[in-house]
Amino acid sequence: MATAGEAASPAAGSGGGRRRRVLLFPVPFQGHLTPMLQLAGALHARGGGGLGVTVFYAAFNAPDPARHPAAFRFVPVGEGVPSADLLPSGSDADFAVALLRLNDRLREPFRDRLRQALAEEEEEEGGGAAACLVVDSNLRGMQLVAEELGVPTLVLRTGAAACLVAYMAFPALCDKGLLPPASQDKAQLDMPLDELTPLRLRDMVFSPTTTHGNMERCLQHLLDAARSSSGVILNTFQDLEDSDLQKITNGLGVPMYTVGPLHKISSGTESSLLAQDQTCLKWLDKQEADSVLYVSLGSLASMDEKELLETAWGLANSQSPFLWVIRHNMVRSSHQVSLPEGFEEATHGRGMVVPWAPQQEVLAHHAIGGFWTHNGWNSTLESICEGVPMICRPQFADQMINMRYVQEVWKIGFELEGGLERGKVEMAITKLLCTEEGRQMRQRAKDLRDKAVKCIEDEGSSKSAIDLLLKRIMSF
Ligand code: UDP
Which of 117, 189, 223, 395 has the fewest Cβ atoms within 10 angstroms? Predict the structure, then answer.
């Protein structure tokens, strides 16, 4: 969305011909790292030779500089900082605590690195002075360091606009005594939230393993980061989330740049932390159009052994072709994932299991007819942008919110609710791939895909927002 009062203009060369450098600091989880690096790629490409890029990164979960433009500088932060408890995984994972710790532990090392980077840039001829820091909205600690050293900040929200609107409403729901919910009673949890339609109270309980207090602190930091920034950048597009974007503009009081879908705008960046199995694309080539179910829970969500078993037999019994991502750490309390005996024979020739897939290419493949997803925002957006309808199985954080929009607002998928049972899995797959209802969801998803394509055309809303953002960066 264009900032009020600004007009779109070609961005390259703005800033009076001065060379500038944009600094970026992503959260070191796959779903956050990817859009930040895509943003870097988009800005770099659009900025021509006028914009340098420096990426600060947590030394664990490091991106690979070789897979990015040679002009990008990569600066590690916090080598030697203990990181085992910074990577949430397993059934008791506490994401809020991981983010709070990340801020605490990386703040001091970042101060040193940023000081150093600023000093080097002063010394360097033509290297480009740092214009600003684009920081993930969960890294309030790094933003405070930048403020201290006089570097302006922009904030990247890697989630949906709907999610930010829900986070903005969180403090008021606490003040009203609605959060945390007074009981686990179904009627109570299903209570619709009038100003956040189609969300229910249960969709605002972001994780069963995070305390309300930690969630409150995390969201407060996030809102502080957004409000004290020089602008918020969102990886979504105007035609998808128009009314929520409007609510953010009215509620935050800072400029907003709606630049998504970033994976369709950015080229030359590839940031997968795990090796992608490319052979599945060849396998997909042999399948019929719209026939294959792609199953993936993203980089952090998990299931227990019983759920793995029920999923396996649900897939087998559905008789539909499938491509299933089973990440090395996807099954809780199991070091080695074993599929049930007889599964391979039952699915021979129509199923493929891989440890990690080139997801964007998979979703873009004509053979894919549906996506069983945990509804992380990147996966949801990637699915929308390829016109692929979804079976939704959200687990934590913003995933429930994304699922509600997929099911109730865009009507391009449905939730697979309750305990996982093979019969329910089979029915859900059949509904998505083989019924008129599923076909209509696919059609609506394809209509949204067409809107996404328009947004990233030259005069489209997201392309114009990238230009405005670049202009803003060059103006600092
Ligand atoms: N992804 C991938 N290969 C896979 C599964 C996921 O490349 O086999 C990518 C996917 O394209 C997406 C990201 O990992 O960009 C996951 O982000 P998302 O926000 O969906 O979920 P998270 O991992 O943060 O829970």
Answer: 189
Neighbouring C-alpha atoms within 13 Å toward the C-beta of 76:
11
Q: Is 238 a pocket residue for ligand 1 (Cβ < 6 Å)?
A: no
Q: What is the pLDDT of residues 13-34, one digit of tens each?
A: 455 567 899 999 999 999 999 9
- The sign one gets for the Cα dihedral 280, 281, 286, 291 is positive
- What fold, for 20-260+457-475? Rossmann fold (3.40.50)
What pLDDT is attached to residue 91?
A: 57
pLDDT at residue 2 tops 60: no
Q: Where are the alpha helices (DSSP H) in 228-304?
A: 238-252, 262-265, 279-285
- Which of 11-20, 226-235, 315-324, 419-428 comes out lowest in average pLDDT? 11-20
Q: Where are the alpha helices (DSSP H) in 203-269?
A: 212-227, 238-252, 262-265
Helix axes 212-227, 95-123, angle to 10 degrees: 30
Residues 396 and 182: their CA atoms lie apart, in Å, by: 20
Question: Is the pLDDT confidence value at 92 over 70?
Answer: no
- Kindly report the pTM of this predicted structure: 0.95
For 398-420, give one letter per residue: b (16+ CB within 10 A) or e: bbbbbbbbbbeebebbbbbeeeb
User: Which residues make up the CATH 3.40.50.2000 domain(s) of the chain?
Assistant: 20-260+457-475, 279-452
Task: Tell me whether the omega of the peptide bond preceding residue 394 falls within 30 degrees of 0, making it cis.
Answer: no
279-452 in CATH: which number?
A: 3.40.50.2000
Residue 390 scores a pLDDT above 80: yes
Looking at the CA of residue 354, tell me the nearest atom of ligand 1.
8
Sign of CA dihedral 38, 40, 46, 49: negative
Instruction: Judge whether residue 123 has pLDDT over 70.
Output: no
Distance from residue 294's CA to the centre of ligand 1 (Å): 13
